[in-house]
Automatic annotation (TrEMBL):
GO biological process, one term: DNA recombination
Annotated protein name in UniProt: Site-specific recombinase, phage integrase family
Listed InterPro entries: AP2-like_int_N, DNA_brk_join_enz, Integrase-like_cat_sf, Integrase_catalytic, Integrase_recombinase_N, SAM-like_dom, Tyrosine_recombinase_XerCD
Domain Tyr recombinase residue range list: 171-378
GO molecular function: DNA binding
Keywords of the record: DNA recombination, DNA-binding
Record's keyword annotation contains Cytoplasm: no
Family statement: Belongs to the 'phage' integrase family.
Length: 383
């Protein structure tokens, strides 16, 4: 066998490397020390295609080999680590398990539909089975894998083409009015300022939670009164990673109102005194830090569990992302109050929120224009 397990429980690759042109003896390529069979098979697949060019149209294409091509493509394209990590999870938990014995060259539309049905029965970490939304994410990744197979001339078609996404339950948008946010903001204790500041940033800027957690003082200009959104933070395997923002348009500058700038100036001085023993470069501190440890997603999740218990009746705790909606809803109401046109409001929101397309902004927030449908109806008075 090409891939074998050794006595030390490590894996070994032994590949025929053709024949010596002078002696006629067979040459072999051997490599040991792989921690898993999957790692060894991935190395074998890479060696065969890049060194030996041994893949022919008759050979079986394993899911391990196809995934190695996806990884190679991601590396060439410079895809974000967060995307790559998510794909690795999709592959490890679902794709590699279901297609472990499959010939990816001959997988059919029927096979893909059966895979989708299998996914719908898989358990979810939240309880029950995978949601349609989660299944759709898995199918998008599988579609990408077969696209890579087609681009490498390993298949002539993508069996995922033509499959429609499963219907997803529409989530009603939640957001705080200014009055509700002020009530929410008043419930923080003095020792919880780092969380209070985080939610003020979310409300006053409309940034995504990952973008907020990546903010250091190097991104904040308190003289010109703006923050530069250039990075996003995410948490994987008990570790924080800082990556690039979601899209090119997400790289943006957001201006701040005066009272919030003054608050940040005051807090920056307090934070510098608080943490001066731990850093020589206070500008590198995350803006919420009250200790040498930065604020992370799990910290926030744990805090929300405690905080939810003190909410008064009638005020529910909205999701972190809903503070972004709250920001947008407030700006829309202000724009309407000031007589600004819908096109101008949407364009301004698109830029401030970092949407890649104005269609995204319209699709998400058009229902916040309460008089729009009434205007359409009254147009028939002049019919």
């Amino acid at each position: 066998m090409t891939v074998t397990r050794q006595k030390n429980k490590k894996w070994r690759v032994d590949i025929s490397d053709g024949y010596d042109t002078v002696t006629g003896s067979q040459r072999r390529h051997r490599k040991t020390g792989f921690k898993s069979r999957e790692e060894a098979e991935r190395y074998e697949a890479d060696y065969r295609i890049n060194r030996l060019h041994q893949i022919s149209h008759k050979d079986k294409i394993s899911v391990v080999y196809l995934y190695s091509l996806v990884q190679e493509e991601d590396e060439l394209r410079g895809n974000k680590k967060g995307t790559i990590d998510s794909q690795e999870s999709y592959y490890r938990v679902y794709v590699s398990q279901y297609f472990k014995n499959a010939n990816m060259r001959t997988v059919s539309v029927t096979d893909v539909k059966e895979y989708r049905n299998w996914l719908k029965k898989q358990p979810s970490v939240k309880g029950g089975t995978l949601s349609n939304s989660h299944v759709n994410q898995q199918m998008i990744f599988l579609h990408k894998m077969f696209d890579v197979a087609v681009s490498n001339q390993l298949r002539q078609d993508n069996p995922c083409d033509g499959l429609r996404c499963l219907p997803q339950r529409h989530k009603e948008m939640s957001y705080y009015t200014p009055e509700q946010f002020k009530l929410f903001d008043s419930l923080f204790e003095k020792s919880e300022y780092q969380f209070q500041l985080l939610y003020r940033v979310l409300m006053y800027t409309g940034v995504r939670i990952g973008e907020a957690l990546a903010l250091t003082w190097e991104n904040v200009n308190l003289i010109e009164k703006y923050v530069d959104i250039k990075h996003t933070a995410y948490y994987r395997n008990c570790q924080v990673y800082i990556g690039t923002v979601k899209t090119t348009q997400s790289n943006r500058r957001i201006y701040l109102h005066d009272s919030f700038v003054n608050e940040l100036k005051s807090w920056k001085e307090k934070q510098r005194d608080l943490l001066k023993e731990f850093t020589d470069n206070p500008n590198s501190l995350q803006i919420y830090q009250t200790s040498p440890e930065i604020l992370t997603g799990p910290n926030i999740s744990n805090f929300r569990v405690r905080f939810k218990k003190r909410l008064p009746k009638g005020l529910k705790l909205i999701r972190n992302h809903d503070f972004r909606h709250s920001h947008a809803a407030f700006l829309i109401s202000q724009g309407l109050r000031n007589g600004e046109g819908k096109d101008y409001i949407f364009y301004t929101l698109m830029k401030r929120l970092g949407h890649s397309s104005i269609n995204t902004t319209i699709n998400v927030y058009s229902h916040l224009f309460p008089t729009q449908q009434k205007e359409i109806a009254t147009a028939f008075d002049n019919f």
